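Anyone? Bumping this.
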Amino acid sequence: MPGSTVIHTQGLSKSYKDIHALKDLSMEVQGNSIFGFLGPNGAGKTTTMKLLLGLIRPTAGGGTVFGRDIQRDSVEIRSHIGYLPQEPRFYEFMSARETLEFVAGFYFKGPSKLVKERVSETLQLVGLEDKADRPIKGFSGGERQRLGIAQAQVNYPDLLILDEPAASLDPLGRHDVLEVLEKLRKYTTVFYSTHILDDVQQISDTVAILNKGQLAAYGSIDTLLAGGGGTVYEVTLKGDAAAAEQRAGAQPWVSKIQAKEANGVTRWVVSVADEEQAELHLLRLLLEDPALVVTEFGRKQFELEDIFMQIVQGGQNGR
Amino acid sequence: MAGNNEFQLVQARGWTGGLNNLMRVEFGRWFGTRLWLWQALMWTLIVDGVLAGVLFSEPSPPVLDALMIYGIMGGMMPAIAVVIIMQDVLVGEKESGTAAWVLSKPASRTAFVLSKWAAAMVGVLVAIVVIPGIGAFILINIAHPGSLEVGRFALGLGAIWINAAYYLTLTLMLGAFFSNRAGVIGIPLALAFGQQMVFGVLPFLAYVLPWPIVAPVGNSTNTIFSALVLGETPASWLPLIVTFVCIPIFLGLGLWRFEKEEL
């Protein structure tokens, strides 16, 4: 499956009366990749997942999962998918083990010994083996989330769709989830949404950022980080920086300087228009000033968070 | 699916997708828990308790009156019971998100609704119709030895079951149409108790609504239930036929609407 297209959407849209929950989403998810789906609340992430699962119907456009139509072949598609909803809810009268046996029953007829083994192994994977036979009614949010991950994984699906898998988990639990996802990459494709940008940057191959129902950015992590708003230098100075700021600001290759002074040091964020010129002259220009001591100098390493904030706050839409 | 070669895989196809698994769970909800036992105990105590109170008081009513009392109690009580039991079945699952969770698995919406309907139909038959019915049969036979025949009484219970199934399926259907419980519970209960009031104004309704199956209309003491038990001919079979025909119609409408439900 690596390299093959697992999810393909074309102009996928969903509206509720006058509200456009999702507008014209066109994207592809490749096999055995970890695809991070980002966006603020109400951006359309859950809507997209529900459309892929056939839980809601598109108002325009369409899509395929494993080459099958998401509307026509929904049941067949779902036999290859594991899904974790945003707020997992289960039948309260069941225990965790019974829940997994119930879910496994949608995929496996038998042999019952193997099904039981798979269920136990999955409970162990998410650390619920000691609570396996307790009613779900008494489970904490984190335990429910672990059970949610277990039930999505019990059939060893070809595609895992996880809506906020690390929500309600403590840092240790979050770390475990990321580790599980990383391990699963070999066997399955993971399509997941999250608000935790660090996690996405750590494990995702490809990222899509949705904003107000529209695809705002889409590509590999490296591509997104590289295109994160041009070349920017971060500089820390001691001494009178005002004159240097004027001098630097007058250079044709400097487009903007943001200066902040605190505790006797001045921090600059210098956006440059010409990367080559800046590399040659910026540091030299500062060192020439005897009234200044340059304590830190370097190119800003963009984080996914920077890109995300730029897109979301700037209302940027379109790839 | 990776790593599943040793398993016998379920082939999910069309509307039967997930049906067996869902049936297992829904029947388990009734018979794997004490639900059926509590329901049976409660309705047996209420229905047969009232019947026993009437039968063993002085003067003891004749068989026809006893059957009329049982018809009203044993017919109307299950109607209320099924409305209460079924009102939350679809609405509750839509609201809590369990419907979306289950339907994210390879299960069809038809299988989801059908499994709930089938399990409730059998659960109600056993716990709310047959068990209290056996109690009633024993009580009437004690009061009037040899007055009832098992086969005919079973036919009468069949009519009571159809009456309960009508309200059960109607409530399930309304659960597919509505997202709040008010309509789902209000409409069937209003119908159950209000229908007799409109017979005076619109008498033809006595032929299309289920009331005459279990309760007499006007001055008559005869019901379809009592006619079946005593081997007599009722005023009309039409209410039983229409009620029976309405069940698949309600079920079909419910399935149609639930297919369109946005989860």
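Late reply, but here is one note on the structure posted above: The mean pLDDT of chain B is 91.
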